[in-house]
């Protein structure tokens, strides 16, 4: 999109982070769990509703009160955002798992942990078994 007719809109690091499959998938899973918990438990739902209203009011007040500061420091925020975007580029290059959905990361992590545990168990049990055989 274009702002002021000729300048491309600046990339936003927060939007980029939220679009990473690992982040967006985790947020979706959390939201589903949160909503299903509220549906299943009316008391929890009423507490959550009150909390949500409070957070909404507080964030509106914070946005309104910070607006002059944000306007005044917009150049610094722009520079920080550009630096953060470059850092995110570097992270995405070095850590390809950021592009994986959470389910894939979990299954790969489970496999890695299982392999390590089997290896540790074997490194302990095999010497003990061979020693006990010799003793017997």
From TrEMBL:
Main location (coarse class): other
User: What is the annotated signal peptide range for this record?
Assistant: none
Concerning InterPro entries, the annotation shows: Perilipin, PLIN1
Q: Which UniProt keywords are given for this protein, alphabetically ordered?
A: Lipid droplet
Gene Ontology CC terms, in alphabetical order: lipid droplet
Q: What does the record list as GO biological process?
A: lipid metabolic process
The domain of life for this entry's organism is Eukaryota
Instruction: Name where it's found.
Output: Lipid droplet
Family per similarity comment: Belongs to the perilipin family.
What's the name of the protein?
Answer: Perilipin
Q: Which organism is it from?
A: Mesocricetus auratus (Golden hamster)
Q: What is the lineage of its organism?
A: Eukaryota, Metazoa, Chordata, Craniata, Vertebrata
């Amino acid at each position: 999109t274009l702002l002021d007719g000729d300048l491309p809109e600046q990339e936003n690091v927060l939007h980029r982070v939220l679009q990473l499959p690992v982040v967006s998938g985790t947020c979706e899973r959390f939201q589903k769990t949160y909503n299903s918990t509220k549906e299943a438990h009316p008391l929890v739902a009423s507490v959550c509703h009150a909390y949500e209203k409070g957070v909404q009011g507080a964030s509106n007040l914070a946005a309104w009160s910070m607006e002059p500061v944000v306007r005044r420091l917009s150049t610094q925020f722009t520079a920080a955002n550009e630096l953060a975007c470059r850092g995110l580029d570097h992270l995405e290059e070095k850590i390809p798992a950021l592009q994986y959905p959470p389910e894939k990361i979990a299954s790969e992590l489970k496999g890695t942990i299982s392999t390590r545990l089997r290896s540790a168990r074997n490194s302990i049990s095999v010497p003990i078994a061979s020693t006990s055989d010799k003793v017997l």
